[in-house]
Amino acid sequence: MTTTSTPEASTRSRWTRQRVLDFLGENGFIVIFVLWCLFLELATQRFATEGNIFTVLRQAAIVSIVAIGETLVLLTGAMDVSLAAILGFSGIVTASLMTTANLPPWLACFGSIGAGGAIGLINGLVITKIKINPIIATLGMMSILTGLALMYTGGQSVYGPALDRIAFLSSGGIGPVKMPVLVMFALYALFYWVLSRTLFGAHLYAVGSNNKAAWLSGLRVERIRIVTFMLAGLLAGLGGVMQVARLGAASPTMGDEFLFPILTAVILGGVSLSGGKGRLFNVLIASIFLVTITNGMVLLDTSVNAQRVVSGVILIVALSLDRLRQRER
Amino acid sequence: MNRWWIVAIGVLMFAACNGGTSNVGPQPQPTLLTDRLGQPQDLVPTSAEIAAAKTALGEKGFIGIVACNLSSEYHAAVPRAAEALAKQWGLPIQVFDSETKADRQNAAIETFVAQGAKAIALCVVDPKVVGNAVKEAAGKGVFMLQYAGRDLAVNGIGISVEDADLGCAAGEIAGDLIAREKGGQANVAILDYPDLPNVVVRANKIEECLKQKAPGAKITGHYLGGTAENGLKSLENALQAHPEIDVVASINDAGAYGAIKALEAAGKDPRQTIVVGIDAEAQAKDLIKQGKFFRGTVDTSPTQTGEMVMQAAVKLLAGSTAPKNVRVPVTKITEDSLK
Amino acid sequence: MAALLQLDRICRAFSGVTALHDVSCSIAAGTIHALIGENGAGKSTLIKIIAGALEPDSGTLTLAGQPYHPHTPHQAIEAGIGTLHQELNLLPSRSVVANLTLGQEPARYGVIDRDQARAAARRVLEQLGTAYLPLDAPIEQLSLSEKQMVAIAKTLLGECRILIMDEPTAALNSAEVEALFKVMQALKARGVTVIYVSHRLAEIFQVADVVTVLRDGQHIRTTPLDQTTPAELIAAMLGRSVQSVFPPRRTQLGDVVLSVEHASAAQAFDDVSFQLRSGEVLAITGLAGSGKTELGQALFGAWPIDRGRIRWFDAAGRITPAHAVAAGIGFVPEDRKAEGLLFDESVRRNVTLAALTRLVKRWGVIDRSGEQQAAQRQAEALHIRAPSLSAPVRILSGGNQQKTVLAKWLAIGARALILLEPTQGIDVGVKVEIYELIAQLAQAGTAIVLVSAEWSEVAGLAQRVLVLRSGRLVAELSDAKVEATSILRAAAGVASE
To answer: N or C: more exposed end of chain B, with fewer CB within 10 A?
Structure first.
């Protein structure tokens, strides 16, 4: 009689294998990231310099900040594709309030961040009360915001010496650590704490994990989702303010180029598109990883088209690792 | 067999309805000269020609403009100028925004033709994608004009600011400044945008003409430009690899703005560092007047282009004689020209 | 009736662990013979031996008087013993008729005679009363219940004498279960014997003739079903006394906590009125489509009512689950996987989910040690077996998962509980644990609404039973009238004697 392994042993070994795949799936891209950084330093000798490291962190800051908001929304099981447009819209609002309306900088900034929050609130209400599919609703919002920005500016950029007053949001800081980087780390620390330690964070994960069960356990699911969209809007608004500070100007289409990086960062960072799973820290690393790809390509003196190919390859490899952990289920 | 009779009658009625509208009267055919590249004055129409064009359009006809996008200064200005002139002459006109997407242009052309356009002026995003639609429309008797390019104006007039001209002008501005102020030696970063094939021509010409004026200049590389964020990011990275960069030539003003921010942050001397763009946007001109970093841009004359488009359409509809290809002049804009 | 299959002193062990010890049993021809027992009692080992997938270590099997020693499942099929597998073993892309005649295609010179095949297929489907199944439909387009019919018909075509069914109703709705029972009666009418393994006592009492109880690998009893009761069977499965299966019912009741007045919801229930007192166990029961599930959900605010009022603790206004929870009302849904638990979260988080709002410190920070303590308390009180409280609830057994759902409400000190089919699909040992828990809670003053289709547990636990039929409240039984037969009659609409 052959000795077959007992049911417990085979369950345990399957469970261990699943945990290894889970780890690789969630964190595999970090391994690739580290290898990539090592390669760049060895190949160019210019990657790991103080100047370059802080350049990379600065370039990642705005995308990563807005990615926090996208992560929150994804965790509840929805998706928001209007965040990039909110960034652009709030950028136009900031710049216009300061140049045309001549408002003091702090008022203009709070005003446009608030506007971002209000737009997020509208998104949340439309999605929870009128029950429109989140992707479609935010797609519509994106269209509306871009249209409004284009209509208001007539296709022109908004610029002027008044905007120099917020330049410190981009160039100020402590030594080589500039404001955007400080804000990025502060916000990540804050939201990490919120997600892992507070009631709101626990409720948020519950809603994303199974919103019906959460509802039947007495959680106010609608309220949680609306608050999440609002927070995402606020963060996108902040991103817009910071981008205006960075460029010293605002163009009506300035948000467009952020949509792809934001979504790529959250997906690469392993946030589940069906909700309830995802780690903020990984999104931060993913944002930085994405920036090091373009940074590295330039340091390596490669052409723009080669950059595209390499980005694509790296992303596919990293995402395949994500598929690994889906398989054994 | 009754079904077939109904189908046959239906087809005949359909053909009769469609055949009817195109009978406005014999369309006068224009003569297009191909021996030389035309000048703007070749296109100015007489009032008789304008009246003839109006007759040719009839009740339902109109002139269509398919713009590459309406979100950048240049591309928004061309149709605006065309519309203004059309209103002045009392000619119906419709404008379509392609949002820089090549495939949307096919749908636009087909829709315009179906709605009764007699002449369509096109800014082509990608000639390979839209070629067939243009030939089909021309085959139906619609005059296909083109601006910002000329190869696809099959039966119409091409009004082009040559990307080659633009690029070369920018390159020459930069080259001249290098020769005059830097003794012919410099490290040049070129901001590119390889998505659009016409823009690739621009970037290449920048490099070519710059080197003609300043053979000793070194090109550190082509980097992604096109938007302010791209320009900024690319220069931030490029300066890490090549801190010696002291000249930036960009295929448009937008990218140049971003490049300037990067140069500022890197502490470069605004008097010693040269940035040149293309498009002659208002912001660019302001910066040139300030004399810090931004030293030159190239006017693509969008307003003049728009007017020329309308004039060319009139010439075609009136059946006159005109050159097949007309060149829109570019103007170099530097501190001197703005005084 | 003569015994068709006789088992004598069957023994089987795995790696030294005894699965079956000295099991002897007779299965008569033309009967529906139920086989019940706790998980691990040896049911699957026994049917695998009968079906030829395993060989006994000792003991004999006799089929129609002849010795029967199948070494492979194929030999068992040849002998006329078939099994209805969970996976059904059908070819999804092929048609019904192709699947039915697979391996037995009527053929002439290698060419399949289509007409004969279709005639044979139609014949066997008619015999089962399932002639409505389209012969040319590909299997993958049929519902699970219809696929089962095809699989059963296939065994019949193969001249099957004994058909073994292992938990066939697990994924079916009530209408489909009824359809399956009709088919089983048709099989019986044709002389086929059915061995029916199930957890659901209500179904067994409905469809089976004889029942065999196994416990710890041993045969405990085999009796005709009209000579026993659900409580007796449960007691036999667990080795307890009959009295201890359902704890004694409390008679002292408190104040009215729930008042339902003419509640109606379109397409669900109509004009239902009743009251509930603290300490009372009120059962709401009925057949499929009676509206009992929707009524249970409506009491928690999870199903909208169009007319009438539902008032808990004299509070005015519409109920939502959030309000209900805040008022101390708990809800155990029918589908714990989809509605009761956060499957990827830890056991601890699932237990404390409703109580989290009370476990926060300043700034909304969760009191982690408080959470751990609360979860630990509940896990101990309910004997929830899990590797650790941090393990995802997904890996727990069904019974322990259900206990986790209950723990969630005990953690907020629920004053009232609405339970929808709380013991469905749960091993009988945990079932009895839950019965004890319900009785304890009622004793302590919790008001309990038990929505269930298991007559045995309704009869065993409730003081009062509301019977719904087609959405209307047709009977209210209390005290002595609360027993299985009257409930069944009222639910089915048969006049009582």
So the answer is: N
